[in-house]
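thread: overnight batch results

M.L. [08:02]
morning all. the overnight job finished for the chain we discussed friday. pasting input first so we're all looking at the same thing
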Amino acid sequence: MNNRKTLVLIAILGVLVLAFHANAKKRPGGKEVDELADFMKRPTKWQGKYAPDFEADFLENGKFKLSEQIGKKMIIINFFATWCDPCISEMPELVAYLGKHGNEPLMMIGVDADEKNDKVKEFVSRHKINFPVIVDHGGKLQKLYGVRSYPTTVFIGTDGIIHIYQIGPVMNADVAFDSFYRQGQDVLNSGKGITHESYIKHLQEQDAKKEPDKEDEEKPEAKLSGRAKTIAERMNCPCGCDHKVIECGCKTGKGIKENLTKRDLNGKTDVQVIKELNKEFCEKDDNC
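M.L. [08:03]
and the structure it wrote out:
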């Protein structure tokens, strides 16, 4: 009987604890729900699409044009930032994967988030990155591929199609890439890689059907006042520039300023708010 009473009391206590947490937990607002839904849908929006063509300069030497490599190699594009901890954590996996397949039809490219060249060069050296890097000046490639958080990794097959669009760090490159890598090798071995002409034709047809993306529309910059303005004046912009948020016109800075106009600042110090914003805009925010 005592055991039964004890079990009943434990069960009641468990229900009370769950009820407390359910009521105490902050309910996500409409904006947070929309952002989460977009975060979840973004990979499916891109997977199965022909990869947008682009041309850019490598950080060290040479130029790269995607359409010149499509159909000849599998291409992995990794969007990263030097200040992003998840980007740093995945680098050994990417470096090791390319090291295993370096003499095979695979090309890996890093795309940095519009930082100073010297800073990116130091990052490449420190992390022994063995693939070429492009600095995305002006955020053109980020916009082209719909990248809104770092890291984001795109795997393009020998058919010119995006097979992987991963938001967040690659924890195990073998698991993430191998099945699509083998498919690409089979296509190349059979001589059926997509031709340059066919890729361009499919891309043009895809672009003709593309609907305007409302997320790409420029919004007026948020106007700050009071404590929100003070925080923006104190906070270094996480984009990696040398500006404070209040004066930075990049997408990250604009996003933080908009966030501050709506954020509940009560009960937190400026330092706590800045720490939260740094983590939020580095790892998962739409505006990074």
